Amino acid sequence: MSRFFSEKYLKYQRRSEGQTIEEDLFCKSCGYNLRGLPQGRRCPECGEDPQAVEAGEYITEGGVRRRPLVDIITIGSDTDRARWRKGLAIATFCVFATIAARLGFFVSALVGGPTNYHYGVYLSVGFAISITWLFSLPFILPSRLGRQWPWMKPLRWYVLGTQWLFAAGYLLWFYEIFFPGPLGPSIPIMIAQRAVRVVAGTGIIVLCGIFRYVSEEAELEKADGRFNFAMWFLPIATVIAVVILATFPSYIATLKFRPEGLLHVIFMMPSVGALLFWCFVLWQFAQGLREMQQRASWSHRLVVTSRSREARIADKRGEMERELEEKVRPTPEIKEDLALEENKGRSRREIR
């Protein structure tokens, strides 16, 4: 019985080889990407007949003509998916590290007051994070985005051209703290330090818009909502963090757990609220990046598992075919057997 089913399975495999959809094809009914599915099967999303359109064309749904969805995170080569996974993992780490560094600076200022040591550690960590963030950008903003959606190309270049300003801002801040003039910090340096951070923050806002669109195309509803929230509220949080939080350490320094210092709590509350709000917005942004990274990792595992399964099936099929070839042996033909068959044929003709 098992041999019967094994032979049937082998026949099915031979018949279905080469029948999978190897290109991006979209169901005309719902726009689902049918890539990797067997040809002739119904759409797994809506159950309709497998009528598909090529990538870039439009589909009609409920009388409305729209473009089919494209999950750019999962399509492409193994190298493309690996770059997404690596870049999103690094970017997620950078955002979480930024939140941790800012909160750490808050705790250090609350306990011992902001000294040059605290500033030096915070600025050094921030500069290292900004350099790491720059390293992740080519991975999370590949040129395929511009080829898939041409309108996204200038936005991509704007993000790539502004994010180095984070590192410049930390360097200016370092110069402002450790190399003040005879009358205190230089006003032009202070203005330049805040200006470059604001411009870099606008790049993050544009990046949120790009990732919101990518998440919408990939049908990542939670990530779409998180990027949408960050895109709208990050400008407010960035301005508050740059303008109001600049005076935050001085409020903490005057507190020092003294009774008379508690009067400054009233003045300190806006800065504390600004800090928590800024961290919350960045937390949403980081969670969106993490969900995109999980989608890229899932796609990678799916491809690896499918290839491993296909390899095991091919090995099993080859083993079973070799086993069948060994069991079915050709009948040996010798001269005596041929002579006997010839005599039998002659005898039949004589009887007739």
Short summary:
This protein has two domains: 17-66, no CATH class; 78-295, no CATH class.
CA gyration radius, whole angstroms = 33 Å
The biggest beta sheet is recorded as: 2 strands, antiparallel
Order of helices and strands: HEEEEHHHHHHHHHH
In spatial order, strands of the major sheet run 1-2
Indicate the overall shape: elongated
Question: Could you describe the 3D structure shown?
Answer:
A two-stranded antiparallel ribbon has the order 1-2. Strands 3-4 form a two-stranded antiparallel sheet. Helix 6 (164-178) packs antiparallel against helix 7. The two termini are 46 Å apart. Helices cover 70% and strands 3% of the residues. It has two domains: 17-66, no CATH class; 78-295, no CATH class. With 352 residues, the chain is mainly alpha-helical. It has helices at 2-16, 78-112, 116-140, 144-148, 153-162, 164-178, 187-217, 221-243, 248-255, 265-327, 335-351, and strands at residues 25-27, 52-54, 59-61, 64-66. It is built from eleven helices and four strands.
Draw up the topology in text.
Blueprint: H1 2-16, E1 25-27, E2 52-54, E3 59-61, E4 64-66, H2 78-112, H3 116-140, H4 144-148, H5 153-162, H6 164-178, H7 187-217, H8 221-243, H9 248-255, H10 265-327, H11 335-351
Antiparallel strand pairs: 1-2, 3-4
Helix pairs in contact: 2-3, 2-9, 2-10, 3-6, 5-7, 6-7, 7-8, 8-10, 9-10
